[in-house]
């Protein structure tokens, strides 16, 4: 059970329901090609949040600790291993801090 305090409050991210997070993870896995920075960690990927526009997902995994993924929503593998565009962070807190600064500009 999740804590009642929302760690994403005050950020441009929000945490969907558990069922939606599972569905979002399925979409993400469908878009991760071999060679992608997150491909080898796909078993440990957890969707933590999405942005208000719905095009970016905040995920955590074993290594790297957190990432922000810009989804294409095609439901299929992209033609290049660097897609979907992904920014890696040392921690979920670092991701949240970085996105907060970007959105504030």
Low-confidence stretches: none
* Cα end-to-end separation: 35 Å
Indicate the structural class: alpha+beta
Provide the residue-averaged pLDDT.
87
Please compute the radius of gyration using only Cα atoms: 13 Å
Tell me the strand percentage band: 15-25%
Folded structure, characterized:
By secondary structure, the chain is α+β, with helices and mostly antiparallel strands. The chain has one domain (13-104). Helix content is 25%, strand content 21%. The protein contains 2 helices and 5 strands; from the N terminus they run E-H-E-E-E-E-H. It has helices at 18-30, 92-104, and strands at residues 13-14, 46-51, 56-60, 66-70, 86-89. The chain has a 5-stranded antiparallel sheet with strand order 1-2-3-4-5. The protein starts with 12 loop residues before the first strand and ends with a helix.
